[in-house]
Amino acid sequence: MIADGPPSNRPPHIALEPSPLPWSPLFKSLVLACALIAAGGCDRQSSAPAQPEVEAGAKAPAAKLDRSQAGKALPEVTVRDPDGEQLELDSLTGKPVLLNLWATWCAPCVKELPTLQAIANRADVGVEVVTVSQDSGEPAEVQKFLDGRGLAQLPAWINSEGALPFHLGAQTLPLTVLYDAEGKEVWRWFGDRDWTDAESFRLIAEAMPAPQG
Fold first, then answer.
1. 3-state SS assignment for residue 32
2. What is the pLDDT of residue 3?
3. Would the pLDDT of 9 be above 50?
4. Distance (Å, rounded) from C-alpha 128 to C-alpha 92?
5. Which residues have CB under 8 Å from 103's CB, separation 6+?
6. Is residue 187 scored above 80 in pLDDT?
7. What is the mean pLDDT of residues 162-166?
8. How many angstroms separate the CA atoms of 123 and 117, rounded?
9. Distance of alpha carbon 7 from its chain centroid, rounded?
10. Structure letter (DSSP) for residue 206
11. Closest CA to 99 of 120, 124, 123, 68
12. Mind giving me the DSSP string for 85-109?
């Protein structure tokens, strides 16, 4: 689903509740679809519920830094782009990675995307920015959304089946996770932030190798 719908149905984020049951790919997809419908105020009677547009004034969930998952490996999840290319996230080693989960209908997500693009374009930051949409549409639709907002330099990876948030135990969007060059988690940030401020650069630097000597 890509952002589209009346202002009265505009959510700021989605809540994803974990389950103790085994998650088959089909079951994950069904549960995620239900969560999207519930969070987005979609019409449950509709066979193709519309997804609401983002709204700049929407209230975001409280932002916080979490180091409790430090040391966990990159998730073994495959994402795809508009050209049909696939990327295995656990193959992203050799350079620190900033993995961002977002959606077109999530106002806090869209708010922070320009700052993610800004650091992605800075070689001196030394981190690879990987943005993965949780929309259930096609990657081309996500690319069109990004292009229309001057964000064409962000990768339009998509994880429409919902495996990634369940793999990470994500309960809200946006979620940003920093991994070091060995693919191990350093920290995760819940909520949006300005990724170009001094504190963000200090946090990202935690994934950099310690100076020799």
1. helix
2. 53
3. no
4. 9
5. 14, 109, 133, 134, 135, 173
6. yes
7. 92
8. 12
9. 23
10. G
11. 120
12. -EEEGGG--SS-EEEEEE-TT-HHH
β-partners of residue 80 are 86, 158
Query: What average pLDDT does this structure show over 44-73?
Result: 61
**Highest mean predicted confidence (pLDDT) among 30-34, 138-142, 185-189:** 185-189
pLDDT at 39: 41
Query: Domains plus CATH for the chain?
Result: 61-207 (3.40.30.10)
pLDDT digits (tens, 9 = 90+) for 102-119: 999 999 999 999 999 999
Contact residues for 132 (Cβ-Cβ < 8 A; gap 6+): 79, 99, 100, 101, 102, 157, 158, 159, 164
Tell which wins on pLDDT, 46 or 187. 187
Q: Among all chains, which residue has been given the structure tokens 């963000």? A: 200
The secondary structure of 113-136 as a DSSP string is: HHHHHHHHT-GGG--EEEEEE--S
Local structure of residue 75 (DSSP, 8 states)? P
